[in-house]
Design a protein that fits this description.
By secondary structure, the chain is mostly helical. The protein has a domain at 55-151. It contains 2 helices and 2 strands. It has a two-stranded antiparallel sheet with strand order 1-2.
Length: 151
């Protein structure tokens, strides 16, 4: 009498061992663990890349906002005849607001804070090459323009 095969026509996965009841296709626990660890490694690399991209975009947006504010100060000074270094009372309120040079007070995307006229004063038009608005993250995360000689 012939005993029916337990394999039922399926090809074995790897070598059949005599102590196994059946050699069915599939993956072992070790293979599954390796695949899971590999997937975790890929996700962590993706996460680190996304964080670096976010920091870079925050830095770029911060510098763009500093440049926009600087252009607003220069435009106001040119329009009303102020020379660099001269005092313009209420400068910040004349630049920032609806219908003015800058629509709203900028907010740093990297959770920093902006200070206005830190070097020369809030109501003073800064000399060329000096910025009017500075970010608190300018030293740690480089939220400052590399060069601004013509600003």
């Amino acid at each position: 009498m012939k005993v029916p095969s337990v394999n039922r026509g399926l090809k074995p996965h790897g070598p059949c061992r005599p102590w196994k009841a059946a050699c069915l296709p599939g993956i072992t626990l070790l293979e599954m663990t390796v695949v899971i660890f590999f997937m975790i490694a890929l996700v962590s690399i993706l996460f680190l890349g996304a964080q670096a991209w976010k920091r870079g975009s925050d830095r770029a947006l911060c510098i763009i906002q500093i440049q926009h504010m600087q252009k607003g100060v220069r435009s106001y000074a040119n329009l009303y005849g102020f020379i660099p270094g001269s005092n313009a009372p209420g400068l910040q309120s004349k630049i920032i607001g609806l219908g003015r040079f800058v629509e709203a007070t900028p907010v740093c995307p990297g959770s920093g804070t902006y200070t206005f006229g830190q070097t020369y004063g809030v109501d003073t038009i800064p000399p060329l090459g000096e910025v009017y608005m500075e970010c608190s993250l300018s030293g740690t995360q480089q939220h400052a323009p590399n060069a601004s000689p013509d600003w």
